[in-house]
Specification:
Number of helices: 1
Strand content: 25-35%
Oligomer: single chain
Largest sheet: 4 strands, antiparallel
CATH class of the largest domain: Mainly Beta
Number of strands: 11
Radius of gyration: 34 Å
Shape: globular
CATH architecture of the largest domain: Sandwich
CATH topology of the largest domain: Jelly Rolls
Structural class: alpha+beta
Length: 237
């Protein structure tokens, strides 16, 4: 009799354990059902990311090929940033396209432009020779209020759009007015890919001054626009 009771208790204990295991399995199944759409979505994203990675790799290889083509140009690489003759302007030039700033490339090899132009301006008159000097006289200033703190808007500032074209046989580089996304002394704004200007090529930089404000204690009567193009030269050996 005692043996039968022990057997029944063992069977009940086993059934209880089986019920507990079944409960755990049901929980696992429910969790798997919840995870299934997440896994499927992750698989789709992974598939898209795979394509994106392949495209990025292809673009990277193309960019490396471009740089490789430039590097295979025979000659000695020399750091070089050609600078245009400064262009003078006054408050009467607001809304006017200024005369082109001309940059002549030397004849001893091509110039490789690596970044957007470095463009700034500075007050040049009155110069103090016959009276007070202009506020901010001689200090380089950016050509867009995007680079100025808000409290500086009321002083001397200008806002420009720009075009850059070739004076020779090369195709136009920037032949429609663009926003002032230039390089700055504290930021080298790289081009998407280097641009090769041939020997003896003439680069024409044209700025349109959309807004001019000359202020301060001694208002400026004239400013000077300055343009430098970062890059390097390949000199024939």
């Amino acid at each position: 009799m005692q043996i039968m009771m022990n057997t029944q208790q063992a069977i009940q204990h086993l059934l209880a354990q089986l019920s507990e295991v079944k409960g755990h399995l049901n929980g696992v199944h429910a969790t798997l059902r919840q995870l299934k759409p997440i896994v499927q979505a992750a698989a789709k994203v992974g598939h898209r990311e795979g394509h994106s990675f392949a495209q990025m790799s292809h673009l990277t290889m193309e960019l490396m090929s471009i740089y490789g083509d430039v590097e295979r140009i025979p000659g000695k690489v020399v750091t070089y940033s050609p600078t245009a003759t400064p262009i003078e302007f006054t408050s009467a030039d607001e809304g006017v396209r200024l005369n082109a700033a001309n940059i002549q490339i030397s004849t001893d090899g091509p110039f490789i432009q690596t970044s957007y132009p470095l463009v700034s301006w500075r007050p040049i008159r009155p110069d103090g020779s016959t009276g007070p000097r202009a506020t901010d006289f001689g200090l380089s200033r950016p050509v867009s209020v995007q680079y100025l703190a808000r409290q500086q808007f009321g002083n001397n500032f200008i806002e420009v759009s720009w075009e850059m074209t070739s004076g020779g046989s090369q195709r136009l580089q920037q032949n429609t007015a663009a926003l002032p996304f230039f390089s700055r002394p504290d930021y080298n704004n790289r081009l998407p890919q280097p641009y090769v200007w041939g020997p003896n090529q003439s680069i024409m930089f044209e700025a349109t001054i959309r807004r001019i404000v000359f202020g301060g204690d001694v208002p400026t009567t004239a400013g000077q626009l300055e343009v430098t193009i970062p890059g390097y030269r390949i000199v024939d050996q």
